[in-house]
Amino acid sequence: MKDTYRIIFDCPDRVGIVTQVGDFIAQNGGWICDASHHSDIDTNRFFSRIVVKADSLRFGINELRDRFRPIAEELQMNWRAVDSNVPKRVVVMVSKGSHCLTDLFDRMRYKELSCEIACVISNHDDMRGISEFYGYDYHHVPIDKDNKEAGFAEVERLVDEYQADTVVLARYMQIMPPALCDKYQYQIINIHHSFLPSFIGAKPYHQAHQRGVKLIGATCHYVTQQLDEGPIIEQGVQRVSHSNRVEDLVRLGRDVEKTVLAKGLRAHLEDRVMVHGNSTVVLD
């Protein structure tokens, strides 16, 4: 939803949070057009996402932040106020698999994702043609197994140069170094081709086939230093049987992967995802 401001926050739970925030918005002429809340009983933490029509307020986003700050401090909030008209800038990273990349391109073409794809970075040159066909800058940055630091230094330079808000690993088959995981904390989104926490690491479909699973899945999660253990944003599954070979699992899994990545990325772009420890609250 465009032409809106979003206020996203979490804070210690107590009586009157929604009333206090709602009164602040109403007293400034604000029209709330969407609101989602969650109270975590185990940790006594309250989570909220409130969407206000931008033209209903008498001031812009910067003054909104200034006016809201005293309430945020009183309620001990982790918070941010976001202008939905300012799209997040996304750098997409990919290796040789095209299904997630082209799915994102098509969703961008049909305006299903509210963002700007700043560029595509790959450790191979295979995806250059399709990326440039869709009109995106493409950077081939090889990752030398004996000197990975140089390649990832160039990745970091490009991400900073393009002023990316989010990095999407659309089947990028390299492990991000710890320094980048920390620098872009909760800004790097990965699609892993298994239903985590099962089958972490390489060749999860082969692992799943060996275990004779009846469900395969895909997981969209934030990247952390711990491989495939970051906070989970979205997941999906596909039923399989003993008659399916590994190549069948790979084929069936591709459809799940691209759908789950798109759903997870959309939730992130719309500021619906709130990290809580190593988990997430994803508000409707």
Descriptive report:
By secondary structure, the chain is an alpha/beta fold. The chain has two domains: 4-83, 2-Layer Sandwich (Alpha-Beta Plaits); 88-282, Formyl transferase, N-terminal domain (Rossmann fold, 3-Layer(aba) Sandwich). The protein is 33% helix and 30% strand. The chain has eight helices and 13 strands. A seven-stranded mixed beta sheet has the order 7-6-5-8-9-10-11, with helices on both faces. It has a four-stranded antiparallel beta sheet with strand order 2-3-1-4, covered by helices on one side. A two-stranded antiparallel ribbon has the order 12-13. Helix 3 runs parallel beside helix 8 (246-269).
SSE topology sketch:
Blueprint: E1 4-12, H1 17-27, E2 32-40, E3 45-53, H2 61-74, E4 78-83, E5 88-94, H3 99-109, E6 115-122, H4 128-133, E7 138-140, H5 148-161, E8 166-169, H6 178-183, E9 188-192, H7 204-211, E10 215-222, E11 232-239, H8 246-269, E12 273-276, E13 279-282
Helix pairs in contact: 3-8
